[in-house]
Amino acid sequence: MLKIEGLHANVEGNEILKGLDMTVNPGEVHAIMGPNGAGKSTLGYVLSAREEYEVTAGKVSFKEQDLLELEVDERARAGVFLAFQYPVEIPGVSNMEFLKESVNAVRKERGQEALTAAEFLKRAKEACKQVNLPLDFLKRGVNEGFSGGEKKRNEIMQMIMLEPTLCILDESDSGLDIDALKVVADGVNSQRSDDRSFIVITHYQRLLDFIKPDFVHILADGKIVKSGGPELAKEVEASGYAWLENHEEASA
Ligand code: ADP
Ligand code: MG
Ligand code: MG
């Protein structure tokens, strides 16, 4: 589904990703952990086509397509959900209108009929209920004064509504409370399926108490330095990242 090969990326002229490789198959949940400043969010931003993040080498293919060649909206229509893409505040456009347009654009790309207003509303109500967001929230302007927790709920609600093939989430905000973490975890767990994959970038081991990943990768200094199963997250929880220094000495 997703194949990242030898990915190098610069931010403000500094090389942050230094040859990252990763493969995600359908139905898999991959967690990315690693020390602060390792490049985890940078990876998310590169996959999200954020402007300041410049790919200097490597390939990213999603299904048969070159993901890096696709614009942000093309990535979304191709079935990639990027939780980073908060739309800029668009005066006069409500969350509801924005989401309905996005959902129908994605459906069109898949050859599905557009949702009627009634069907959209029905699904939106269910999704709001699942993330514990009042439906009234959808009537607010896009990005109008959201708290951290509301942003997170809104993001997961969007993920549920868009039915993506690949979801990329970066749980990097230290401000997230346990309820918000659980919303993220419940959202991921409820959407897991044989044909949908997740990359969950996390600065919290705790999130992985609620989401059981199939694979855990440690990203350090711009590369994946270790991959394993869920037990790797437990190891990190117990012993931190001190072993990385030995690893670097060993490989130097
Ligand atoms: P992580 O998410 O693993 O903590 P980041 O990807 O946020 O790490 O950051 C990796 C490195 O890239 C850090 O040294 C950080 O300072 C730098 N960096 C990230 N984004 C920017 C930016 N927009 N401008 C300058 N430096 C950045
Ligand atoms: Mg950081
Ligand atoms: Mg980060």
From TrEMBL:
Tell whether Hydrolase is among the UniProt keywords.
Answer: no
Q: Which residue windows are coiled coil?
A: none
The alphabetical list of record keywords is: ATP-binding, Nucleotide-binding
Q: Which domain of life is it from?
A: Bacteria
- Could you tell me which residue ranges the ABC transporter domain spans? 2-246
Q: Name one GO molecular function term.
A: ATP binding
Protein's UniProt keywords contain ATP-binding = yes
- Give the record's family classification: Belongs to the ABC transporter superfamily. Ycf16 family.
Q: Which NCBIfam families match?
A: sufC
What is the protein name stated in its UniProt record?
Fe-S cluster assembly ATPase SufC
Q: Which organism is it from?
A: Aliidiomarina taiwanensis
List the gene name.
sufC
